[in-house]
Amino acid sequence: MVKNAIRANVKHKKRLICLDMDGTIYLGNQLFDGVKDIFKYFELNKINYVFLTNNSSHSLPFYVDKIRRMGITCSEDNFYSSIDTTIKFLQKENIRTVYVLGVTSFKEELKKHFTLVDEASDIVPEVTLVSFDTQLKYDELKAACLYIQKGSRFIATNMDYRCPIENGLYIPDCGGICLTIEACTNKKPQFLGKPAPEMLYQVMEKFGVSREETLMIGDRHYTDIMAGINSGVETVGVLTGETTKEEFLSAEHQPTYILDSIADLIEILEK
Ligand SMILES: [Mg+2]
User: Fold this and answer.
1) Boundaries of domain holding 118
2) What is the CA(107)–ligand 1 centre distance, in A?
3) Both 147 and 136 in a single domain?
4) 162 and 147 in a common domain
């Protein structure tokens, strides 16, 4: 439950709250207790919030719909994904030709900005981009390995090795697919999503806020908390997801704050 009253017009140092979703505000389709009050508080106090997701297999409308159904007001501006991060990064690097391991919706998005080559191309693409490809075929994996060995830059949307599904089971995520390519090519990918700092750098730029004005909240130490630490912003580790208090406390880089649940966030914001 929210311990503090919901007050408006409180002076805040933080102007942008960056949030993980699964394990931080909900589990499955169930919002945690007190979460709606936190978003009410953001709204009343004009604090911006943005959900950061490493998952490139869903488009933004999918997430807007999911979060709205749970009763939280949001628009596409409240989301920033590893897809946005990747497009912006490749544009800044002046990349034109890309070979993609990714789902159809991810490829469609990239096609708007880059020339995509297929697995039978004579041209070696400047970048071979790996993502959470739930439609992956062996010939595509083979082509990625061949392009990288011929000099294509090995870039990946996110480091997550596995993605949780129901009943405590997991399926291979982007980082897991990259391990296969690494084993074949002896090359390591450059990862762009959390914990790399690019995603947070880009959202701070988008919202026009400084590191001091930003807070990163999440349940996973190696992605969420490290993304905050790597980009120089304060972090909150919540105990509603994957990481235990002992694990947060024994990590080399600890979060700035540890909370039982995001419902206790106001204590920190009003400090
Ligand atoms: Mg999470």
Assistant:
1) 92-191
2) 25
3) yes
4) yes
HSE-CB of 212 using CA atoms within 13 angstroms: 2
- Cβ pair 269, 234 in contact under 8 A: no
Strands 170-172 and 162-164: antiparallel
For ligand 1, the distance from its centroid to the CA atom of residue 22, given in whole angstroms, is 4
CB 238 within 8 A of CB 247: no
DSSP 45: T
pLDDT in tens, 11-50: 778 999 999 999 999 987 889 999 999 999 999 999 999 9
Q: Which of 172, 130, 173, 128 is nearest to 146 (CA)?
A: 128
Rounded distance between C-alpha atoms, residue 78 and residue 94, angstroms: 27
The residue ranges of the chain whose pLDDT is under 50 are 1-2
Please tell me the distance between residue 91's alpha carbon and the centre of ligand 1 in angstroms. Answer: 28
pTM of the model: 0.86
Q: 54: CA distance to ligand 1 center in Å?
A: 10
Q: What is the per-residue pLDDT for 14?
A: 93
Please tell me the distance between residue 135's alpha carbon and the centre of ligand 1 in angstroms: 23
CATH number at residue 47: 3.40.50.1000
237 in any annotated domain? yes
| Span from the CA of 34 to the centroid of ligand 1 (angstroms) | 18
68 falls within a domain: no
> What is the whole-number distance in angstroms between the Cα of residue 102 and the centre of ligand 1?
21
For the chain, the domain total comes to 2
CB burial class (10 A; 0-12, 13-18, 19+) of residue 100? buried
- The verdict on 97 and 176 lying in the same domain is yes
How far does the centroid of ligand 1 lie from the alpha carbon of residue 178, in Å? 21
